[in-house]
DNA sequence: TCAATAATTAGAATAATTCCATTTTCAACT
DNA sequence: AGTTGAAAATGGAATTATTCTAATTATTGA
């Protein structure tokens, strides 16, 4: 049985895909639902395990295909830290990531408008940034571990 | 014939290694010299090709070993963008990276103290950042391509 | 319903990096 | 100078995340 998205998520999902002429399949909905459901920045591997509980026949390739599609539609974002496996995040607001080197957990860190502007201002004339990626790593908050 | 470091680089190099009880070997000096020589953010593969011109018998494993050692000693820094191969950079000052999506080139972008402080201030109480990584990607300066 | 197109599937292939067992190098001691 | 022991280098195999491929299945629009 497929993952059930909330009515508003389902609308966003179907709309974003149709806008690009893509089909809102049950696998894509499931992957999207899983990323929304537990916002722990899962890897493709984590997502594959969770998807299989809902749609047991799903293959790894499909999970990767779905993730690529969802990223392409702007529904989820990739988080790359070091050489570790890519993680996925449904938070579309401007934010940075903090990786705890002890637990491996990743935390979202909001970026205020003023700091964001200062960061943008670093870019030299003639360059046009389409993407900004800010990552911290170090010791996380022990109360959350 | 080994790569020849400038007297001051040689001193920094030998000192940083000896401080950690490590040996300043000719392979390590060569890898370090190559990263200092052409500051184009080479990959391990690029470095391997260049090292072989000076020390033909060098193996890939040695290049990786040397890079790990140099990073561990703080002589060079790793630059990870997306899932592309790790690149290496001898610029030890606070700086960000801009990757041109057209040419693949990576440019250093200096970070002023005020912006750096603002970025640090984003980190929530209880977290201790040991590393900051700021990356931009988009269209680079066409005059440099 | 049916054809056309898009998406999914399983498994092979790839690419960057790491591991491992062996050999070589280097520095400190006889 | 020769010996020894630890550290480093070597070649090749192994690993891991991801992408590719060819065949099958699902979805959409006429």
Descriptive notes:
The structure is a homodimer of 145-residue chains. With 145 residues, chain A is α+β, with helices and mostly antiparallel strands. The first copy, chain A, contains 5 helices and 5 strands. The first copy, chain A, has helices at residues 7-19, 26-37, 44-54, 60-72, 113-121, and strands spanning 77-79, 87-89, 95-100, 106-110, 128-139. In chain A, a hairpin with a 7-residue loop joins β1 and β2. The radius of gyration of chain A is 17 Å and the shape is globular. The interface between A and B is large, with 42 and 41 residues. β5 (128-139) of chain A pairs antiparallel with β5 (128-139) of chain B. The first copy, chain A, binds a DNA duplex (30 and 30 nucleotides) through α4.
Which key phrases capture this entry?
homodimer, 145 residues, alpha+beta, three-stranded mixed sheet, two-stranded antiparallel sheet, 5 helices, 40% helix, globular, DNA-binding
Brief rundown of the structure:
Two copies of one chain form a homodimer. With 145 residues, the first copy, chain A, is α+β, with helices and mostly antiparallel strands. Helices cover 40% and strands 20% of the residues of chain A.
């Amino acid at each position: 049985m497929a993952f059930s998205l909330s009515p508003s998520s389902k609308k966003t999902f179907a709309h974003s895909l149709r806008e690009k002429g893509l089909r809102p399949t049950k696998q894509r909905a499931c992957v999207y639902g899983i990323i929304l459901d537990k916002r722990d920045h899962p890897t493709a591997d984590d997502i594959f395990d969770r998807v299989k509980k809902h749609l047991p026949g799903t293959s790894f390739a499909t999970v990767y295909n779905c993730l690529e599609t969802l990223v392409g539609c702007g529904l989820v974002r990739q988080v790359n830290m070091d050489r570790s496996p890519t993680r996925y995040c449904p938070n579309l607001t401007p934010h940075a990531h903090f990786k705890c080197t002890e637990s491996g957990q990743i935390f979202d860190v909001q970026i205020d408008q003023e700091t964001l502007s200062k960061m943008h201002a670093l870019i030299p004339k003639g360059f046009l940034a389409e993407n900004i990626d800010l990552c911290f790593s170090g010791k996380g908050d022990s109360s959350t571990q």
